Amino acid sequence: MPATLHSVLATFGLVHVAAAALDTCALATQYFGNDYPWYIDRIPFFETSDQTITDVYYYRQKIYRAHQRDIGADGFISTEFLDDVSWQVAPWGSLSDATAFHLLEGRWNRDRIFKESYATFMYGSQANPRGFSEAIATAVWQGYLVDGVVDDVTGYLDSMQTVYLEWESDHYDTSKQMFWIAPIQDATEYTIASIDASCGVDGFQYGESFRPSINSYQYANALAIANVAALVGDTSVAEAYNARAATLKDLVQDNLWNSTFEHFIDRYYATTDCATYWDPIRGRELVGYTPWTHDLPDDNATYANAFSHILDENLLLGQSGLRTVEPSYEYYMVQYRYDSSTGQPECQWNGPSWPYQTTQVLTALANLLDHYNNTAGASVITKWHYTNYLRSYAIIHYNPNRDYTLVLEEDYNAETGAPIVGLSRSPHYFHSGFIDQVLSGFVGIRARGDDVLEVNPLASEDITYFRVENVLYHGNDVSVQWDSTGEKYGTQGLIIEVNNVQVASSSTLTRLTVNVGRLSPPTWPRTAPVSIQAQNDGSYPVGSVDVDGADTNKIHDTIDGRLWFFTESTYDVAHGYQSPVGDGATEHWFQIDFGTATTVASSEIAFLDASDQAIAVPLDYRIEAYINDAWVEVTSPAYDAALANGITHASWTATSANLVRLVYTPQSGFAVRIIDWKVYDTLVTDTSTVCS
């Protein structure tokens, strides 16, 4: 029945009206501290009997928040590394290899600006959507399946086609009708193909191949384009891209499935002294599961044995994670590349466990268990394995090199679970998914294009309870609850609630569907800051401080649109300008020069608190503007108390000035670190739910 009818019937006691079971304020303050206002109204709240999965779910929400870079009037983008790396795309530091993961994580955030402005950016002139192989179009489509906003997704149709045709123009073999790519551009340097094509000498370059990855991405992108075209009634485009997808589906199965290995593997595109065009590579790789990540293979028992390889510790299953290559490979875990400045190992895909491909395997397995009835019917792999792999994946977030705190890095030793690369750039790396795997797989919300809510949990029988709330699905508030005994939430079984009304239930973990209406999703107020500066190149706005010789990169940090409250002291994580240690009396200042008269009316300030590093909020602060050749405090100021590891709000009567500054007094024995300072030309206030 439609969700609108549920509420009517509930009035007469004809359906069960649910009461929220989670204390979202308690969870928000527990996991996010003083920064909880950003999360409280935006994220789905979740808990399960597996505490590790619960804790990592909220850590991954912090990762998502940390990587939302404010780019001013154009909204936000998701970054991969916290700080700049040499191969990013200027001016905003974007990289396309993990964009699909970013969008899929973001599709569950109730504030659509993050995924929508990011998708718009990636299809715009300041990004390079083809810097790496990509599945952006299909990720955008998957976002639409959650929020149901037609106008958002249809606006990308032309850009989706442009990018697809560009891939066809330079990475498509017309004789084979398949796509090829070098492993380095596939974001997976040092694969079997690249190492063997170099005759075992290297593998950073080389190895251009017809890979399961890019062909699966392009299959899914083609279907996404066809689906979006169908929404706008463009049958010719829909038919053309459906035909492309059908061709790729057949050819991937015909040509990349290797009956000896019982796995999808590469075939060489480029010939070298040690590689020949169209020859298959000589081993299995974890990338061979990407066809299922994108629902490409036919549903038959022939392919079921591919999943036995992640059950075998002699093949792709390590003690602590999934290997990218099997130990039998001649160059398994041979370290070729090192960071020149530290001597630390660099990234390779010849055996290490990567969250990137673990995410893809979890999605592939979720698809298999959800709707590949014949393949799953072979009983090679089960829901128990899905939950166990999700749990193992969660465990690696607890970093043994950092006192087992939650610090996700780049790649891992599949036997020990320890990070391999471990560079300054590595902590809190956003190159994978987890939120999406919990919500679409473990909880089982299978987003659809029609107005049906479908839930098919993949949680195993040892999970005694879970509940998720605040899921925004087609504009409706959705909760899903499982309680194996009724002792946790008071009702035994699986329950679905829509807009606080119970609409479906089962005594077992099984598939449930319910018709729902499509409502307009909520919108968040958005005012773009006037203080954001992408590059530290002297362009306005520009920051400065009262300390001679201060690190200009750290000064720029404070106005570069990045914001997080991680407290590691490494250079890349220690974001923002840090003052000298205070004496309790001496004032310091941080200045923004706009280069021209600019209206200023309010600001948001992020102060770090890290007592172990002698960093604390200031004793006091004020905002000054340079008016009539003098610094004066702004008129009628309203200053919030300086908040540790949260957002401090300040407002005043709007004024026009070229220069503004934040004047503050550090506490005695402590420095002040200003992670982020945003200035607005109008009054910006916090409208989020207040937790007492």
TrEMBL record:
Keyword Signal recorded: yes
Gene Ontology molecular function terms on file: catalytic activity
Keywords: Signal
GO biological process, one term: carbohydrate metabolic process
Keyword Ribosomal protein in annotation: no
Mannosylglycerate hydrolase MGH1-like glycoside hydrolase domain span: 95-432
Leader peptide range in chain numbering: 1-20
Cross-referenced InterPro entries: 6-hairpin_glycosidase_sf (IPR008928), 6hp_glycosidase-like_sf (IPR012341), Galactose-bd-like_sf (IPR008979), MGH1-like_GH (IPR054491)
Listed name of the protein: Mannosylglycerate hydrolase MGH1-like glycoside hydrolase domain-containing protein
Organism: Pestalotiopsis fici (strain W106-1 / CGMCC3.15140)
